[in-house]
Amino acid sequence: MSFTWEGLVAGTDQASGRIVLLDPADTDWNGADAVRWSWAPDRAGGFDDSLIAAWGVPTDAKIRRCDAWGGLWLVATDSLGLAAVVPFPSADRKRWAANVGGNPHSAELLPNGNVAVASSTGGRVRLYASSQGPEADAYAEFALPGAHGLVWDPRRDVLWALGDDDLVALAVEGSDAEPVMRESSRTALPTRGGHDLQPVYGDADRLWVSTVGHVYQYVKSADAFVSDYPECREISRPHVKSVGNFRSGRVAGTVPKAGSLYEWTTDTVDFHGPPSKRVCEGAAFYKARIVYSDYE
């Protein structure tokens, strides 16, 4: 299967229980060919019934290149407990998966093949030794109340983790088989309820950070949260569940919509710079991720 995937939008559709890829250039997201690619765990891909039962309310999806394994990989999480890695776009086998519990909200695939998972109600970040095989269950754990977001930083060799009240940089130490996480820095959020964490593509010194009330950019070199980015008035809204930008600078995000399947979902992805919307009727998106394999 071959198609142009960079710059597509990955929706975590909790209505269908799938990760779906949609093209922001398409004005109609409801046609028969609107979904360019989709995935959910199944037996054919090596997932047993216990893992399949831990899927159905997907919360995050990223596509990453992995130095250790080569090629492209989808890393995904689900509120019911599943964290999984499958090859992209074939998705024909389970590279690693586990029911990690604790309401997983985000995951990140590190260059060595280990997977970090942020679990919100579990109040923790775990770094699994997934590089050791599909069933690997060893992990390091770092307590972080309300853990919601993760981004690997290849320049600083740290894992950024977002919780209820803080943005934390975690140094990854130990070995691939026995990883260790150590707090390198911690910065209090300007408003509480950290929710989404993403790279600002085009500026490696910045991260997108959404809280219950606002959307900020975090400037790493200044250790400061700022609101000086373009279209801030439109982008910074309450209850932004996901936010990120295309390399062009255009921004996509999701906010809950009244009448959607859950109080945290929507059928609409909002775009800024210039403003527009895409509606996928019947969908219940929690997040809409702009698909790039680069960490920054």
From TrEMBL:
InterPro entries: DUF6528 (IPR045383)
Highest rank taxon of the organism: Bacteria
Pfam families to which the protein is assigned, alphabetical: DUF6528
Protein name as catalogued: WD40 repeat domain-containing protein
The organism of origin for this protein: Paenibacillus flagellatus
